[in-house]
Specification:
Layout: H1 3-11, E1 15-17, H2 18-25, H3 29-37, E2 44-46, E3 51-55, E4 59-60, E5 63-64, H4 68-77, H5 82-89, H6 100-105, H7 109-119
Helix pairs in contact: 1-5, 2-3, 4-7
Length: 121
Amino acid sequence: MSTITDEIEGLVQSWLNLPDVAQQLGIDPHRARQLIRDHHLVAIRRGENNALAVPADCIQDGKVVKGLPGTLTVLADAGYSDEESLRWLHTADDSLPGTPIAALRENRGTEVKRRAQALGF
């Protein structure tokens, strides 16, 4: 495993595999994979079987966390990889306060998106 992946493992509390993501969202696993490709969700390969896994906190009340897809697009446009995006989302930011993913879950997406947009400059 790479150093960044090890770091992410320490930041993310709980993971969901694709069938679990699909079940929580009420969709089939192929659609869950499409959500990852389209930057609506973010995933990394982990574990012995190297399977895609999504942080559990990216899903709330049976839906993708509001504001996450837009934030992921901004991060991708700024050149962030999926691993770097996950690290950014799960690293505490004193100006929020808390982590960007926690702020998104609290419906503070505008604040998060502003910070993500600043990364591109």
